[in-house]
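Why do we care about 3D structure at all? Because function follows from shape, and shape follows, mostly, from sequence. That is the central idea of this module. The next example makes it concrete: a single protein chain, its amino acid sequence, and then its structure expressed as tokens.
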Amino acid sequence: MAQDNFRKQIQSREILESVIRILWALVLLSLPVTSFRWFPGLGEGTLVRPLALYPLAILLPLLLIQARRKKIPPPFSGAFIALGAFVLFAAFSSSVGALLDPIPLRGQTYDGRAVRAFVTLFIGAAFFLAAVWMNQNETDLRFTVQWVFAGLCLDLAWSGLQAVTFYTGWLDKEMVTHWQLAFSMRELVRTNRISGLAYEPAWLAGQLATLFLPFLFASVLTKFRLTPWTWSESALLILSTLTLFATYSRGGLLITFGVAGLTLLLFGRDHLRRMWMWFINGFRERNLASFFLRLSIIAAFIAIAAGAFAFLGQKNYFRRLWEINAESLNEYIVDINAGARGAYTAAAWETFSAYPLTGVGLGGSGFYIYQNLPDWALTTVPEIAKQLNPSNRLYPNPKNLYARLLAETGLIGFFLFAAFQLYLLGDALFMVRRAEPWARFAAIAGVFAWLSIALYNFTQDSLTAPNIWLVPGIMAGLAAKSGQKNLETLHSENNKEIS
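And the structure:
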């Protein structure tokens, strides 16, 4: 009887562990869906609705139950301390914001916006906690990245369907729009820009830059394979890059290629040196075949660059970057359709200038934006004019996470958040110290993602987006476990020396 009970306990534990792994896989698989239509109790103004929140809401309680039963150890990372300090100060700044008591704006009260802001922060922190908890070693990392790639394949497939709809007559656009509205808050983009499973093209570009491309780039650079086929990571990298171009996202493209180049300089200098020596030596060999091969490579690079330039130049939205028709910086910002974004950021900065230490409370910056808009934005930016229309019910946002944090939590809150981010960078760099191939792969992916997220946050202000939490959480989990093992090894060696 005792053996039967023990066997049942083992089976029950294995089943629960399998359920946890399945739920984590579902979280990763559903990450590309950012604006899931079927969320109860949310208005149409709530656009960030990650489908992954559903499996995550089941996963975290199961993890807590297992931790309470001491079946799995709860994770600990120093990043939790930095994040907790930021959350505590955000709560303090929100109490200060409540004392300021701004006038309600378009049916929105300060208390409601503060509660909403903290809910979004806790959702983002929940993704971070799950990523830390579910990534403790190489096996966990492999499982995670494989399911991230599975989600990417779904995203690329839907992006391909959109491309077929936009550029061929094989599928009716209205029909595909109905398919997309079955799960998304938004129909197909009318300008024929690829948005994938995300709400808009810029969001898809952000996902590619901060989540998918870091792992693909690191895999190709280190030749660390996570799929059964040696060519699959390279193929996914090429398809993801083509999809990135098809989004026509200026920020996404600049961030991705800039960070890729910087990461290559940091971690791929040996590869660059070998490639350069191979290229130069070919001209010294006095071999016509070798000489023409190098010339063909140069011609191919020029053709690719020219083709990309011509492809992007098809859209007036992108072409305005180099067709300058402005006499000042403000006019240039308006001319490239960034006037509204610049105006909201400038208004957030003015709010910060008025309350530099504590800010106006998490979620409260929107109440101060209209009164702090720069003069040039009131007459030259059509989007601002629409926002100022009394019939408009939208609540304004800074459109820049750093400007938002300065306006809402002041210098203290901003520096606490920066300390949290720098700790996460340290976790990624910590993995470089390990000699294993998987650790180098993780370090390169972590640094690539950290740099992309740091730049991406200049273009968005949401704390809910899972893609800004997931890879840093993975690095924090791996670094915390590796650091714990190093301490245990050092402790055992000291004990041996003493004995």
